[in-house]
Write a structure and sequence with these properties.
2 copies of one chain form a homodimer. By secondary structure, chain A is an alpha/beta fold. Chain A has a 6-stranded mixed beta sheet with strand order 2-1-3-8-7-6, sandwiched between helices. Chain A has a 5-stranded mixed beta sheet with strand order 14-13-15-16-17. A 4-stranded antiparallel beta sheet of chain A has the order 10-11-9-12. Chain A contains 14 helices and 17 strands. In chain A, about 40% of the residues lie in helices and about 25% in strands. The two termini of chain A are about 50 Å apart. Chains A and B meet through α1, α2, β2, α3 and β13 of A and α1, α2, β2, α3 and β13 of B. β2 (about 40-45) of chain A pairs antiparallel with β2 of chain B.
């Protein structure tokens, strides 16, 4: 049996305790660790206060095998994470020549370097240095008192990139077992339905294991295996994965993808097709989500945010009489929007959303009433009732997911409605 | 002197430790508490494990006066927060009649109620019940062993709404002092510059206090006063606020506003003006951010996501020869985009963004090169170089902030460029 590595992530920064910043570092590190089978048991957030941080480290030493810190590695007098962690494990900070050279390079290059910058090159004796290619403050790792300690800077871009490139490989080496995990991502089915579907098997399984998880607008089923080699773990997962995929059928939009829009990009690229979007209640969110992904321009023409009837008429060319007769939130207007934006932008597929995201109603429909359309060779419209108790942001996000689900189904030749 | 209430927020949920969900509850509660002068000292995240949660509660009892929990109040067998907290303080759970009636109402109304739903109506003896108008699981508060304990459900919408409506008033009553805090929000100046500008005063001040904080694309200066009454605290803040605002000048976009776009909505409404947006590299994000705010439709006509040159030409009507000659990322194209979208959508103001959000370049410009335009009576274009090392999402967000900053300056009659 391999050792179980219980992990605690300690995020250091008063800005987190003031609510000015969200602790995405802990989330992202946790997600990466869960995929290699390392269990995160605690997240702790503490301010830029060395005594309090020291107390937190003492608590973590008692309940965790791996301690990961984020934040407090910068050059200001608030940045004390390295000092506190080194002292908690009885280590000295020593000057690291390579990191000192990097700082001299900065100075020579004319970059503004504060007098305290050199402190960044002071690192715990005997540590493994994690050079920061995404910023200036290096991270590091050391083993002491039977614990493994890793430290990363706080800015999410630096923290996540460094953890992925340097932290994960470092931690993988700790284990004589390889843990492999894959996720089946679904839309249109809830976590509890998935749980119910696989409950009997899940209760019997020990390796691989299977567990469903809910995300805000969709859900996933994670299958994890432990073995002597990655190859062996993959082999153990494969038949379970095939069986689960077969039972889940059409609901599955991808394996190990972050979002449904990511899957839609792959499908569009494979088919050499592109799309355009006409958005009312989502107000640009479908386009924004898609263009968050680098390389979207190859398959996304653009679109129209037709937030007012005037724009629906003037830009999309929808007959104002139709809008008057059927209402802006209607099957007919959704259909026209999808068809017009496809023509207007010269796309293969046009999609549309018109609905009520709330909190105010229009006197006709309930909040959460949304029509989503897809125009290609034919036009399809889904009528959604997402619930009057839902937030504006949920309704917008869920409407977008329906649009992407329709696109995926169209591109895969599945039933769309 | 009033007592200082050190606070710990314990968020319960294995999904947080797996990285499937971000701990926005702790952030939002922290932000609300900081505004009434209650210091959050720790955030802890722990899984759905009663022994581990109990240990965390014991730690919190030693270092905090107020313990706030989020999550684990639902009807499933995983939901054990109330049981653990009650037992940690030697309290029994007793049936609450009003909450039991609510559950019977659900059942009568035909809602699916699991056999475990009634557990939600079991609450610590003598507690103050926080009825949940946004979901089903009630929260509660009690005082025991000199500590104040508050519990809220995990779903962010329920947690934040309940904390605001019920938790904050409950906590405000604890103090015989009133704490009032206001924030000056700025764009175009960094936290360190603000810190430098006010360093001398800040070092001398004790009540009110003043502190600058960085947000991702802008920053704020928070002024906080303690007094016997809110009125008195407000009086103490007023002259400091006036002086700070005067020194910060044009950089200030609002007081106590969440975002610059919120301020722009107010200004547009006051002037009975509306705008439209033509977006390339922001890909709909400007429209999305604006329409995230309820009531945006009164001042936002809509827009065009002109992600490709084809859409710039076909939908916006920009001469392809101009795009060919100057390039899509250029002063001239930004100018045309703003002017055309204004005309096309029948708006008073047209704004535009065209640039390189990366990670790939176009062989001509550096990543982070962005042109943002505003067309009204005249047309203005800013050329930005946001930095090659910046992320795609930063570049998109910062470009949006520049657009909103130009609109704010235009609407306030300030210099725009």
């Amino acid at each position: 049996m391999s050792k179980v590595y219980n992990t605690e992530i300690i995020s250091v920064g008063t800005e987190l305790l003031l609510g000015h910043v969200t602790n995405t570092d802990a989330r992202d590190i946790s997600e990466m660790l869960s995929k290699i089978g390392i269990n995160v048991k605690y997240h702790t957030v503490v301010g830029d206060n060395p005594e309090k941080l020291r107390d937190c480290v003492e608590i973590a030493k008692k309940r965790a095998d791996i301690i990961i810190t984020t934040g407090g590695l910068g050059p200001t007098c608030d940045d004390l994470t390295k000092q506190v962690l080194a002292s908690a494990f009885g280590l000295e900070l020593v000057e690291n020549k390579a990191e000192m050279d990097t700082i001299y390079e900065y100075i020579k290059g004319g970059k503004k370097v504060t007098p305290n910058n050199y402190i960044q090159a002071m690192l715990p004796e005997g540590c493994t240095v994690f050079h920061n290619d995404w910023g200036t403050a290096p991270g590091c790792a050391f083993e002491a008192e039977g614990k493994t300690v890793l430290m990363f800077p706080g800015p999410p871009k630096e923290c996540v990139a460094m953890f992925k490139a340097l932290g994960l490989p470092y931690l993988k080496k700790l284990s004589d077992e390889q843990i492999v995990s894959h996720s089946i991502h679904m839309f249109g089915i809830g976590e509890s339905a998935v749980d119910y579907m696989f409950r009997d098997e899940m209760n019997k399984m020990s390796n691989p294991t299977m567990a469903p998880y809910a995300k805000e607008c969709d859900c996933l089923l994670q299958i994890t295996a432990k073995a002597k080699s990655e190859e062996e773990a993959e082999k153990m997962i494969a038949p379970v994965m095939e069986e689960a995929k077969a039972r889940l059928g059409d609901y599955v939009y991808g394996i190990d993808v972050d979002t449904i829009e990511q899957r839609v990009i792959e499908l569009l690229k494979a088919k050499h097709m592109c799309f355009a979007a006409a958005e009312s209640c989502t107000g640009g969110d479908i386009a924004r989500r898609f263009t968050d992904i680098p390389g979207a321009s190859a398959v996304f023409k653009g679109g129209v945010v037709s937030y007012t009837n005037e724009v629906k008429a003037k830009v999309l060319g929808i007959d104002p009489a139709l809008i008057e007769e059927k209402g802006a939130v209607s099957y007919e207007v959704a259909k026209e929007m999808a068809e017009r934006v496809k023509e207007l932008c010269g796309a293969d597929i046009g999609v549309s959303v018109t609905g009520l995201a709330g909190p105010d109603g229009d006197g006709v429909h309930e909040v959460g009433t949304v029509f989503v359309g897809l125009a290609a060779d034919k036009t399809y419209v889904r009528e959604l009732h997402l619930g009057t108790y839902r937030t504006r942001s949920f309704i917008r996000q869920m409407s977008g997911n329906h649009v992407y689900d329709m696109m995926r189904r169209y591109l895969c030749g599945l039933d769309i409605l």
